[in-house]
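Weekly modeling sync, notes
Attendees: S.R. (lead), two postdocs, one rotation student

Agenda item 3: backlog of single-chain predictions. S.R. asked that every request posted to the team notebook include the full sequence so nobody has to chase files. The rotation student volunteered to paste the first one in as an example of the format we agreed on. Action items at the bottom.

Example entry:
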Amino acid sequence: GRITKESYIHPAVGVVLNKKVGEHLDARETIATIHAVNMSAAKSAADELLSYYTFSETPPEPSPFIKGKIM
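Predicted structure, as returned to the notebook:
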């Protein structure tokens, strides 16, 4: 992500999410691929990305498609 909309976007940096919420995951399966400028940045991105995940034996309840209305 960027700090501001004017922040530089590095074209070689990003993340590809290989799994969707609720999909089965084997222990050695790749959940995401991180593209970074160096290993330190990749490690930092991996640590942050993993902090957003929760793993369990049962899939989560589906969330509503429409989150709310703006009037």
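Discussion: group reviewed the output briefly. The radius of gyration is 16 Å.
Action items: rotation student to repeat for the remaining queue; S.R. to check formatting next week.
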